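Good morning N.,

You mentioned wanting to compare the apo and holo forms, so I went ahead and generated the holo version with pyridoxal-5'-phosphate. This is what I fed in:
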Amino acid sequence: MSKDNPNYHRETRVTTAGRKEEWTGQVVNPPIWRGSTHLYSDVAALEAGKSTNEDGRFFYGRRGSPTQWALCDALTKLEPGAFGTVLYPSGTAALAGALFSVLKAGDVLLMADNIYDPTRGMANGLFKQMGVETRFFNPLDLDDYRSKFCDRTKAVMLENPGSLTMELCDIPTLARLAREKGAVSLIDNTWASSLGFAALEHGCDISIMALTKHVGGHSDVMMGSASAAERYYRRLRRTAQQLGHVVSPDDAALVMRGLPTMALRLERSSQSALQIARWLQDRKEVSHVLCPMLPGTRGHEVWQRDFTGGCGLFSFVLRDADKAARARFVDALDLFGIGYSWGGFESLALPFDPGHIRTASTWPPVQWGTGEHLGIRLSVGLEHAADLIEDLENGFAAMENS
Ligand SMILES: *Cc1c(COP(=O)(O)O)cnc(C)c1O
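and this is what came out, ligand included:
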């Protein structure tokens, strides 16, 4: 039986995905094929090379080599319903590249209000300059969403759960409405990855991931991807070629290395995150735990319905703490590093106050940043959960001792 049998679970398929004899030879992982120039045997071969424009054969470095093609192939297998995947130098570049592929001057873009902040910055900066109007909507309010459509709406940008505040929305419904209105739906699928949320099967047209997070998984590489069925894949690829987006084969090999262990890492960090979220729920210093995997949290039913897995990233809200107390909490942590990004093997903590970012919604119903309510986001890694809980316990103790 072929190891590439589509009946196998995706966890099984990613262990050998991208392995093709002509790319890999007899070794387990695709070699790193560095190269800008690809040499042709003669002029006739050079001419023949121009007539097709497919990946999977040598042409020129910007079209990639077997190292990048193997990763694309593996990510396409990870996303049910995808025809192909395009790689980008970062998750942010993937978001920009995908939006560029579907928008032009005069179009209206609808964007979920709980989107990753740099995506909002892109809409308010680059895309505005380009003549694209962005309207933000509350992803938890269907009437608000519906009312934002007009006959110039060409695309809808979603994310689930929302960055920082972690509320889950009903993607199948939002995506179906977009399709009915003739708009393309794009989703930032970084949190659950294609493994935890099959975005295309749930009605989205383009599934985007910051591979920097879970797929890379080791905090040592930046990359992004966009996967789609054939029609949108063609547009993504053409746009990426025109923008000159290319990733190095060395980076592609690093991301590829993270892929076979991703399911295991996500399973472990989700379990620990859930355990820590439950523990935080009982702390008097905490007013809200924002974690869709936690029963009783907003969107938990949707999570159970639509997702096959979660991850270690969630947030909580401190009550009656000023910023100095929050800083004492975070500074006292030993195992949780202080820093951006997430999805690596080591745990991270990040103070946040999203009040000024949101313009169309509020969730949870708190006054952000007032001292009454301050946010902390945790990215739970692979350390033992009991050690992480002890670390947080020390953080709470430091908060009391001013
Ligand atoms: C980090 C992140 C990105 C951007 O990825 P980079 O590789 O850092 O550019 C996009 N979306 C979400 C939800 C993220 O957390």
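The chain has 15 helices and twelve strands.

Happy to go through it together on a call whenever suits you.

Best,
F.
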